[in-house]
Amino acid sequence: MLFCVKVLHGESMEVNILSISIKSPSKVPKCKVLELDVDWNIEYRKMESKKFNFLCNIKAYGELSFEACVEGEINTEKDYNKIPNFVSISIVKNLMNSIPKLISHAQQFRIEENVFIKPNVSLAS
């Protein structure tokens, strides 16, 4: 998943999601509009000039309770010492728009037993 955050005067930051781990609810509600209370935090680590890694933890409460841990990276045009707060809010907002869709897809995704196991092949003639 990739998205850009506009900063100032046309400058942007590229946000790449590297991994998402979701502890999804046992039941997904059918309604399309959900009201959730959300606790979140993001920890940033500067890797090099113009590049940060981040770890975002989200816990949502309500009709669709879930927990998510997201790892990603941010590439900036300018060399920042600290990521601005509005970037964190933008990351969480984008994730909150995407995670319920991912949970819905995961509920529909099932792997059939033995789907990757091929029958024994004999080379004898």
Describe the structure.
The chain is of the alpha+beta class and 125 residues long. It has one domain: Bacterial Protein-export protein SecB (Roll), CATH 3.10.420. It contains one helix and five strands. Strands 1-2-5-4-3 form a five-stranded antiparallel sheet, with helices on one face. β3 (36-48) and β4 form a beta hairpin. The N and C termini lie far apart (50 Å).
In CATH, the topology is named Bacterial Protein-export protein SecB
Give the count of structural domains: 1
Main sheet characteristics: 5 strands, antiparallel
- Tell how many strands the DSSP assignment holds: 5
Rg calc: 20 Å
- Quick one: overall form? globular
Give the integer mean of the pLDDT values: 80
Summarize the structure in short.
This protein has 125 residues and is α+β, with helices and mostly antiparallel strands.
Features:
125 residues; 42% strand; alpha+beta; Bacterial Protein-export protein SecB; 1 helix; five-stranded antiparallel beta sheet
Topology diagram in text:
Elements: E1 2-6, E2 12-23, E3 36-48, E4 51-62, E5 66-76, H1 85-108
Antiparallel strand pairs: 1-2, 2-5, 3-4, 4-5
